[in-house]
Specification:
single chain
Length: 245
């Protein structure tokens, strides 16, 4: 299937999805369940990865800036900006595309091949709106919190690793505080919201149109993760060019 056909079918699916839910009480119940599934259940991996990445970035930055001509606080500054500008938004979303995206695609794809979606359509229910909208809104709602937590935990990981003798903790703190630009947090949150919509909508698309058997569900999950990651990288370039230049 060609790119234009895929894009058109995706747009039509989003048109069906992004409408007001027929029964608000049912939607709110599903939305609450998805908040836990897409957000709270993703928290452990966010905490672990952010902590160790923050620590590793600090060590690497210190080793590469260990020069008497460079100020000692440069390591903290570089770690902060790396986390804020790229890791806690783009890289984190690429990681979550593998966890959240494959989960969404597999769940909806299983419903498709077991004819549960067809049953919803027979009952006159907008299956796209019923199944996909709560997932998209829940992930878009939770991603700013995950990004902010990732930033904080990453900085904490860098701070803790300074006690191993890599550098003085006071110099690290000075670097974090030096020339702080609050706009970077806003920039990261905006990027992450866009990426969360891409992950949830693209993954749901591939799951919704997964026909065949269990093998096709697995293939749909793979396509969802790969294509979501490619689109995220493309939009990362566009948003960075628009918002930082």
């Amino acid at each position: 299937m060609g790119l234009i056909t895929e894009t058109g079918r995706y747009a039509l699916l989003m048109k069906r999805t992004l409408t007001a839910p027929a029964r608000r009480s049912v939607f709110l119940r599903q939305y609450a369940q998805e908040l836990e599934k897409q957000g709270l259940q993703s928290l452990p991996i966010v905490l672990i990865i952010s902590f160790f990445i923050g620590a590793v970035i600090t060590i690497q930055m210190r080793l590469n800036t260990e020069n008497p001509l460079l100020p000692s606080y440069l390591t903290g500054l570089a770690t902060r900006d790396t986390l804020f500008l790229e890791f806690s938004s783009t890289i984190l979303c690429l990681i979550l595309a593998g966890k959240v995206g494959s989960n969404m695609s597999s769940e909806i794809g299983t419903m498709r091949i077991t004819e549960q979606i067809d049953a919803l359509e027979v009952m006159g229910i907008n299956s796209a709106n019923y199944l996909i909208l709560p997932k998209i809104l829940a992930f878009v709602t939770m991603i700013p919190f995950l990004v902010i937590i990732s930033m904080a935990v990453g900085l904490m990981g860098g701070y803790i690793v300074t006690f191993t003798g890599v550098m003085l903790p006071a110099d690290y703190i000075s670097g974090i505080r030096y020339a702080f630009i609050p706009y970077y947090i806003f920039y990261s949150i905006i990027k992450s919201v866009v990426f969360a919509f891409i992950i949830s909508s693209v993954s749901s698309y591939y799951g919704y149109y997964a026909y065949g058997g269990a093998l096709d569900v697995g293939r749909a999950g793979t396509n969802a993760v790969v294509n979501s990651s490619i689109i995220i990288l493309f939009f990362n370039l566009m948003l960075t060019n628009l918002m930082l230049t």
